[in-house]
Design brief:
Blueprint: H1 5-20, E1 28-29, H2 38-46, E2 56-58, H3 60-71, E3 75-80, H4 87-95, H5 102-105, E4 107-110, H6 113-116, H7 121-124, E5 128-131, H8 145-165, E6 169-172, H9 194-205, E7 211-219, E8 246-249, H10 266-287
Parallel strand pairs: 2-8, 3-6, 3-7, 4-5, 4-6
Antiparallel strand pairs: 1-5, 7-8
Length: 292
C-alpha cells in the first residue's frame, strides 16, 4: 500500500546512515526513542507483514502473572525459541495493545549479527539488548576470540547488575541462533544448551530479588525465514511475506524440581533440566498448530 512507501524510504535512509557511520552498541544497549523513535519504527515496519486477524496469543493467565511479578519489582526470564530477526517486533505486535510495556521494556539477549548488519541495526537500536557473541561466531575470526570472551563476561556482569535492580524482564534463546528447517522441511525447536540455562539460573539466585522463569514459544518463521545454512559473512538474502504469527507462554518453570532433579551427577542434572525446559517450549510450540 502507498502508506508503506514512506516507511520503506525511512528504512533506506537509516541503512545509508549505518553505512556512513555505523552505530556502536554497548554491552547493554537501551532502546532509542528520541529524537527518532526506533522502537515505533520497527513495530510499524513489521505490522504490514503480520496477518493480525489470524494471529494468536496463548497463556494469557501466565502473561498476567509476569506483569504482576514485574510490577512488584521481581524479575522474569523467558526461556524461548527463536525464529526470525523480527521476533522482538513480533512480540510487540502481539502484546502492545493489551500489555503496552511488556515487550517495549523487555531486554533481549542479542547476538553479533543484529548489531553489525546495517539492515538489522535500525531495528536493534529500538530494543533493549544485552549484546553477546554466540558460540556459533565466537571463534570467527580466531584472533578476536579472547576479546569476544571478555566482552561476553562483561555483558554477563551487567546482566547480574540489572537483575539485582529488580523489575527486569529478559528474553533469551538457550539454543543460540535462529532455527532452521530440517531435512523434512520442518521448522525445528533446537535443543537448549544446559550451560546457558545454568548460567541464567545461577545469576537469578544471586539477584537479591525473586526471579521467575517461564517458557515462551514463538511461531514467526514464515515472516522472514533465515538462510537455509549458517553463514559467517554479512549479506544474507532476506525474503519476507505476510503471515499470521503465534505466541504461547507456559506456566512458571520449577527450576529445582523436574524429572531427574535428584540425579547424583551435576552435569547430567543440568542436561536433564535443559531438556525438561525445552520440552515445555516444544509442547507449547506444537500446540500452536504450526508445526508439520
Amino acid at each position: 500500500p502507498d502508506d508503506y512507501i514512506p516507511l520503506f524510504d525511512t528504512f533506506l535512509s537509516l541503512v545509508q546512515s549505518q553505512l556512513a557511520a555505523p552505530f556502536v552498541f554497548q554491552s547493554f544497549h537501551q532502546k532509542i526513542r528520541h529524537p527518532f523513535d526506533h522502537y515505533a519504527f520497527g513495530v510499524n515496519f513489521l505490522k504490514p507483514l503480520v496477518d493480525e486477524a489470524r494471529s494468536t496469543v496463548k497463556g494469557e493467565r501466565y502473561i498476567q502473572e509476569v506483569v504482576d511479578h514485574l510490577e512488584k519489582g521481581d524479575n522474569v526470564i523467558f526461556l524461548a525459541n527463536h525464529q526470525t530477526e523480527g521476533d522482538p517486533q513480533a512480540l510487540s505486535v502481539l502484546l502492545d495493545k493489551k500489555y503496552p510495556n511488556l515487550a517495549a521494556d523487555m531486554i533481549f539477549v542479542a547476538g553479533e549479527r543484529v548489531i553489525t548488519d546495517p539492515l538489522a541495526v535500525p531495528f536493534s537500536m529500538g530494543r533493549n539488548l544485552l549484546c553477546i557473541y554466540s558460540k556459533r561466531y565466537i571463534d570467527n575470526p580466531p584472533e578476536y576470540k579472547t576479546a569476544k570472551q571478555l566482552h561476553n563476561k562483561r555483558t554477563m556482569e551487567l546482566m547480574s547488575e540489572l537483575l539485582s535492580e529488580g523489575g527486569k524482564c529478559i528474553y533469551v534463546a538457550p539454543s543460540g541462533g535462529r532455527y532452521r528447517v530440517n531435512t523434512q522441511g520442518v521448522v525445528e525447536v533446537a535443543p537448549f544448551d544446559p550451560q546457558s540455562v545454568e548460567m541464567f539460573y545461577l545469576m537469578a539466585q544471586k539477584a537479591g530479588h525473586p526471579t521467575y522463569f517461564y517458557p515462551m514459544a514463538l511461531a514467526t518463521y514464515e515472516l522472514l525465514p533465515p538462510p537455509e545454512t549458517v553463514q559467517t559473512e554479512l549479506g544474507e538474502v532476506r525474503s519476507a511475506k505476510r503471515s499470521p504469527i503465534h505466541l504461547a507462554i507456559g506456566p512458571q518453570i520449577d527450576m529445582e524440581h523436574f524429572p531427574g532433579s535428584d540425579h547424583p551427577n551435576k552435569r547430567a542434572r543440568r542436561q536433564l533440566r535443559a531438556d525438561y525446559i525445552w520440552q515445555q517450549v516444544y509442547n507449547d510450540y506444537k500446540n500452536l498448530g504450526v508445526s508439520k
